[in-house]
């Protein structure tokens, strides 16, 4: 089976199921997306649940416009996190964190001081996270 035939078969199946199929990205778009992801996620810090109650404090940078988080290890199925900005003093909202990058605060100004209160799905579970800001 050729690659072209395999792709066409997959596209036909997805369309039959009512799903949309994205157009292939151009090399320039792919390179731009990769550069943006590298610049933001490349500066991520790794933290371990259980070592501290709140991760941080951190100060936002120009690498990311949002604060992003993902779970990278441990036996927990997921975690919970929110962003507590120094000036506000309270959490923005609790977000469920899995193995994919998840935005936990959007459009954050550079130089903003924050911490990340956290929790996992079960007491006694372990989890390792990355936070990109």
List keywords for this structure.
9 strands, 133 residues, single chain, alpha+beta, 5-stranded antiparallel sheet
Describe the overall structure:
There is one protein chain. The chain has 133 residues and is of the alpha+beta class. Helix content is 22%, strand content 33%. The protein is built from two helices and nine strands; from the N terminus they run ααβββββββββ. The strands form two sheets. Strands 2, 4, 5, 6 and 8 form a five-stranded antiparallel β-sheet that branches. Strands 1-9-3-7 form a four-stranded antiparallel β-sheet, with no helix packed on it. The longest helix is centred in the N-terminal third of the chain and has 15 residues, at 27-41.
Number of strands: 9
Distance N to C terminus = 44 Å
Tell me the helix content. Answer: 10-25%
Structural class given helices, strands, pairing?
Answer: alpha+beta
The helix/strand series, from N terminus to C terminus, equals HHEEEEEEEEE
In short:
The protein has 133 residues and is of the alpha+beta class. It has two helices and nine strands.
């Amino acid at each position: 089976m050729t690659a072209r035939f395999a792709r066409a078969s997959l596209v036909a199946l997805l369309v039959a199921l009512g799903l949309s199929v994205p157009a292939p990205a151009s090399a320039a778009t792919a390179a731009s997306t990769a550069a943006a992801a590298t610049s933001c996620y490349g500066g991520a810090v790794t933290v371990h649940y259980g070592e501290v109650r709140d991760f941080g404090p951190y100060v936002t940078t120009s690498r990311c416009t949002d604060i992003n988080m993902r779970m990278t290890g441990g036996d927990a199925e997921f975690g919970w996190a929110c962003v507590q900005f120094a000036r506000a003093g309270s959490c923005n909202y609790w977000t469920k964190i899995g193995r994919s990058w998840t935005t936990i605060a959007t459009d954050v100004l550079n130089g903003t001081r924050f911490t990340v209160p956290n929790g996992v799905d079960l007491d006694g579970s372990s989890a390792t996270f990355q936070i990109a800001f």
